[in-house]
Amino acid sequence: MAETDGGESPREETSPGRAERGPDGRLRYRPEVGDLIALRAAHVCGSERMVVTQVGLDVRLACAGCGGRVVLSRERLRGRVRELIGGVGEKEG
Fold first, then answer.
1. What CA–CA distance (Å, rounded) separates 50 from 84?
2. Strand partners for 84
3. Tens digit of pLDDT for each residue in 38-58?
4. Domain for residue 6, yes or no?
5. What is the pTM (predicted TM-score) of this model?
6. Region for 16 from its dihedrals, namely left if φ exceeds 0, alpha if ψ lies in -120 to 50, beta otherwise
7. Which range of residues forms the domain containing residue 93?
8. Is the CA virtual torsion 80, 46, 51, 69 positive or negative?
9. 10 falls in which pLDDT band (50, 70, 90)?
């Protein structure tokens, strides 16, 4: 029988190296164009998944559900990202 990992969800183990949990429990994440992320709060269409489309002083996101666009400052995005689902530079396996 496999042992449990102490109550942590298995999704946290699959997160890439550029996203890690800080001491406050928030995800420390460095955005890159093409990343698929899950936000803490859902978009008005009901989807929680967003795709990073542009990174600069602000970060532009496109909703994976309806295609709507959102612009957030890096600081606001930092507090709203729940998980990094996938990125452009990752290997499919």
1. 10
2. 37
3. 999 999 999 999 999 999 999
4. no
5. 0.70
6. beta
7. 34-93
8. negative
9. very low
